[in-house]
Amino acid sequence: MTFRGEPATFNRQAADWIARLHADDRTDHDKTAFRAWLDADPCHADAFERASAIWDSAGGLTAPMPAARPSLPSRRAVMAGGAALLVAGASSVGWRAANAGVYRTDVGEQRRLVLDDGTRVMLDTDTRIRFRAATDLRTLSLSAGRIDLDVAADRRPFAVQAGGRRVLMQTGRLDIRYDAGQAAVTALDGTARIETSGSSVPLRPGQRIAMADGRPDRVDRPELDDLVAWQTGRLAFRDETLAQATAEMNRYTDRTLVVVDPRAAAMRFTGLYRVGDPEAFARSLAVLLPVRVDADAGVIRISATG
Q1: How many CB atoms lie within 10 A of CB 169?
Q2: Mean pLDDT score, 120-134
Q3: FRET pair for 286, CA 20 to 30 Å: which of 26, 88, 97, 112?
Q4: Burial of 97 (0-12, 13-18, 19+ CB in 10 A)
Q5: For the FecR protein domain, which residue ranges apply (predicted)?
Q6: Distances from the Cα of 31 to the Cαs of 1, 35, 76, in angstroms?
Q7: What residue spans define the domains of the chain?
Q8: Is 292 exposed, middle or buried (0-12, 13-18, 19+ CB in 10 A)?
């Protein structure tokens, strides 16, 4: 594991390591690099212990942490709730044939589909799409939500319509989100073109463009592992505010997280969380941050202490 942009504290590094060591795609190289980080400074072991205790308090996964060295106890999983997303179909890794043209997911649901041209699409929570294939063009309209799109090779270009923006690609993979007039498109593999207001902008692998009415388009290079974490039922937060994080978590559940006061809303943290269990998320925050959590059947309120 390499840190993209040096984390500000040992605690943040420790949180990143716990997330990485419990990722589905972890490697032996990650484990070796973790041991090297652990041995580099005595403060690292202390930070790892603190981070592990916090993540345990959230009721993490059941898989044990790989032993780093004899003096360090193993720990259970990441800052996570136990609830997994609902995935349509008999298997969470299966792809269902899609023929009707219009598809949607409910809150807390994900679906994997194969369109009739061979393109694979994964729908995130509360997402709606429509697909049409003509003799000269394939078109997918995203009216709300988020998708991962693996475009099959074909002589016909593939167009994605999201609000007033159009994305064109021949073949490749995209992450696309559209909510309330704001769109974000990331080229995970292959090059796309973004068409808007009569202009065309190339989007190269690893680039993301954020577009919204009334402001200039912005292009950056996000951390791709964090960006696609939603596909495994997790959300990655890196130095994000509590207000931003709760808004994201609320997309996956009808039990709403409410940040009561501006001081709590402005608090920043880093972590990897499972979606679908807002109370476990809030419980871990109460250990990590100076906040109080009050929960009832429909709402979980988070407020600053002191």
Answers
A1: 22
A2: 96
A3: 26
A4: exposed
A5: 102-192
A6: 9, 6, 15
A7: 86-222, 226-304
A8: middle
User: What pLDDT shows up at residue 69?
Assistant: 36
What's the chain's length in residues?
A: 306
In degrees and rounded to multiples of 5, residue 207 shows phi and psi of: -90, 150
**Is this prediction's pTM over 0.85?**
no
Q: How far apart are CA 200 and CA 116, in angstroms?
A: 28
Position 110: which residue type? Q
- CB 114 within 8 Å of CB 93: no
The single residue listed with the structure tokens 């988070």 is 302
Residue 25: its pLDDT value, please? 60
pLDDT in tens, 154-169: 999 999 999 889 999 9
Q: Say which CATH architecture domain 86-222 belongs to.
A: Sandwich (2.60)
**Is the distance from CB of 55 to CB of 75 less than 8 angstroms?**
yes
- Contact (CB, 8 A) for 149 and 188: no
Q: In whole angstroms, what is the distance from residue 127 CA to residue 252 CA? A: 11
List strand residue ranges (DSSP E) for 118-170, in order.
Answer: 120-123, 128-133, 138-151, 158-162, 165-169
Which residue would you say has higher pLDDT here, 88 or 151?
151
Q: Which residue has the tokens 């068409």?
A: 195
The residues with which 192 forms a beta bridge, in sequence order, are 203
Q: What is the pLDDT of residues 72-84, one digit of tens each?
A: 333 333 333 333 3
226-304 has which fold? Phage tail protein beta-alpha-beta fold (3.55.50)
